[in-house]
Amino acid sequence: MDNKRFLLKELFTNISTTGAITFSSKSLVNKMLSYADFRGKKVIVELGGGDGSITQGIVDRMDADAKLLVFEINKAFCENLKKKFPGPNVHIIADSAENMDRYLDGKKADLILSSLPLTLINKESREDIYRKSKASIQDGGKLIQICYSYPLKYQFARYFNTIKSHLSIKNFPPTFILVCQ
């Protein structure tokens, strides 16, 4: 079975944790990442690496000396990500986003980019992810989240002062991009 078919099978087999019926389109990835300035950013976190489409966009844009921490709980996706991104500055972490602070070595992220299926995550874990994201980001840093449910904006509002939302219709299904500061 080729890699693309394997990843699609994994996507559908574990829909309760992947939270998607398709991988992020190139258009969505480009739009999401257009809200981040990667120049000079040294610590970048991705929550939910999936098939690596967003990871690839980050790697293509980040500085050569930046460090990227990619959190993914699906073991098959992790193995695929490790093969796809073997470089020393990309760290694939097979752990929950709730534990991001354990991997930052006392540093704070300049950017957090997330495609986590938050509506499928239990409330306690989701709140922990919001709290840890806010605590783990530099002053002036951004958390950028793609989601299919606009009301998630109000959950982020308990932790972030400024949230801008953008709709991406060139994805199936159409997706909201929340930019939180």
TrEMBL record:
Q: Give every Methyltransferase domain span.
A: 44-141
* InterPro entries in UniProt: Methyltransf_25, SAM-dependent_MTases_sf
**Known Gene3D superfamilies for this protein?**
Vaccinia Virus protein VP39
Q: Which domain of life is it from?
A: Bacteria
What parts of the sequence cross the membrane? none
Q: Mind telling me which Pfam families this protein's record contains? A: Methyltransf_25
Q: Which CDD domains match?
A: AdoMet_MTases
Listed name of the protein:
Methyltransferase domain-containing protein
